[in-house]
Design brief:
Elements lengths: L20 H8 L6 E4 L6 H9 L3 E6 L2 H18 L4 E5 L5 H6 L6 E7 L4 H5 L24 H7 L2 H12 L4 H14 L5 H9 L13 H12 L1 H15 E11 L2 H14 L11 H8 L4 E3 L9 H6 L7 E7 L16
Parallel strand pairs: 1-2, 1-4, 2-3, 4-5
Antiparallel strand pairs: 5-7, 6-7
Protein name: Ribosomal RNA small subunit methyltransferase H
GO biological process, one term: rRNA base methylation
Organism: Gluconacetobacter takamatsuzukensis
Length: 340
């Protein structure tokens, strides 16, 4: 680095606190000359820390145009600090990472980090419609295309709406909520976050947990609007395929639906399948094949008490990591039979 330049700082932008940052960096282990992918750029907290930790190249994906603009600001900061930018921003969903990176001739990846769910910027901006704590249009889209949450709430039939709230929000009273929504929209379209939250609270009682009764239904709608679980399934499969030998995948999730998919994908890759019957040929084949990955986290990692106190949004975070095994060296002939 030129002595006249200013090194990149690790300080994230105001309003953004990356969750479990120390643990992410420990598991990812950035090194000079390597290539990494931040599949969920968001506020850029992980990206900034990775770029500051090593002289590496980082590709970053996000489908939120606002996140892309934040990434472009970080690119400009890198150019000012180093005379070049090691950050490449790509607009799109991380579930399409292979096509997005192949189109740009990106090399094999030495590491991938995914921070699942909604970003703090999206939650805190009322106009995005993610939070029942801010009144705003009922949108919930992470990007700027496709149906909004208002479209789903006002057009979906009662049975399908109940299924969405139950499957993605794990709302036990989903049918009661769907019935109330259908009755309310018959009087007037439901277009704001506050109105939807009031409808949900009218039929879902509070409990001792202190969690707002609207929380689970809002989560279910957000996941459905953005096809988050579909993105996770596709993104995990592609990330594992795109890792170079020795490359690592680090994932931070925030609720059981996400974490379950991450655990299943990593355990499959590491050969820890909760397989079918031992008499099933597929099970026999899976046991005979050597796994190409090893788990770096035997059990999910959780944030420490200090981080949870400083950043309440970290309380539900869970981190899992996996490493692609190096290709075995078959060139060693030291054990070959010697001729007399």
């Amino acid at each position: 680095m030129n002595a006249m330049t200013t090194p990149l700082t690790t300080t994230p932008p105001p309003g953004h606190v990356p969750v479990m940052l120390a643990e992410v960096l420990q598991m990812l282990a950035p090194r000079d000359g390597a290539t990494y992918l931040d599949g969920t750029f968001g506020g850029g907290g992980y990206a900034r820390a990775i770029l500051a930790a090593a002289r590496c190249t980082l590709w970053a994906i996000d489908r939120d145009p606002a996140a892309i603009r934040r990434g472009e600001a970080l690119q400009a900061e890198l150019r000012a600090a180093e005379g070049t930018s090691r950050l490449h921003m790509v607009e799109g969903g991380f579930g399409d990472m292979r096509a997005l990176l192949d189109a740009r001739d990106a090399p094999a990846l030495d590491g991938v980090v995914l921070d699942l769910g909604v970003s703090s910027f999206q939650i805190d901006e009322g106009a995005r419609g993610f939070s029942f704590r801010h009144d705003g249009p009922l949108d919930m889209r992470m990007g700027d295309t496709g149906p909004t949450a208002a479209d789903i709430v006002n057009r979906t039939d009662e049975s399908d709406l109940a299924d969405i709230l139950y499957q993605y929000g794990e709302e036990r009273l989903s049918r009661r909520v769907a019935r109330a929504i259908v009755a309310a929209r018959a009087q007037a379209p439901i277009l704001t976050t506050f109105r939807l939250a009031e409808i949900i609270r009218s039929v879902v009682p509070g409990d001792r947990s202190g969690i707002d009764p609207a929380t689970r239904s809002f989560q279910g709608l957000r996941i459905h609007v953005n096809d988050e679980l579909g993105q996770i399934r596709s993104g995990l499969d592609q990330a594992l395929e795109m890792l170079a030998p020795g490359g690592r995948l680090v994932v931070v999730s925030f609720h059981s639906l996400e974490d379950r998919l991450v655990k299943q994908a990593m355990h499959r890759a590491a050969g820890r399948l909760p397989g079918p019957s031992r008499y099933d040929p597929r099970s026999i084949q899976a046991r005979d094949e050597a796994p190409g990955f090893r788990l770096l986290t035997g059990r999910t990692l959780r944030p420490g008490d200090a981080e949870c106190r400083a950043n309440p949004r970290a309380r539900s975070a869970r981190l899992r990591a996996i490493e692609r095994l190096p290709i075995p060296d078959t060139s060693d002939t030291s054990h070959a039979e010697r001729r007399p």
